[in-house]
Amino acid sequence: xxxxxxxxxxxxxxxxxxxxxxxxxxxxxxxxxxxxxxxxxxxxxxxxxxxxxxxxxxxxxxxxxxxxxxxxxxxxxxxxxxxxxxxxxxxxxxxxxxxxxxxxxxxxxxxxxxxxxxxxxxxxxxxxxxxxxxxxxxxxxxxxxxxxxxxxx
Length: 153
What we know:
65% of the residues lie in helices and 8% in strands. By secondary structure, the protein is mainly alpha-helical. A 3-stranded antiparallel β-sheet has the order 1-3-2. The N and C termini lie far apart (47 Å).
């Protein structure tokens, strides 16, 4: 078995960072066969689940990235045939993002990959341990979001 850490860290933030890095590496490995990145998958999932028309500004807000980053993501997905850009009905300058048949079909593959990655993460835990861990992580998320919300005021 490969070593994951040399020793137990004093605080758990480095361990969380390590786990996130490993998840990203595994996702990238699994997605390589489709030639898409995790961020591109995030975009495709958002478009797949959207109940309304989505323009690039809405996608930018959802992904919390710069306009140039959204442009790059959309350009790559359009080149690969996962989506198309169409002119907005009310404002032709506004570009509406629409999944193609290929983009819609990919969603099922992506869900399967996410399920596999989650199963790998959770494989040695009991149901009670998973419930407790999720509760602890929710508490960490709440603690951190309270801190960042205070800083934004």
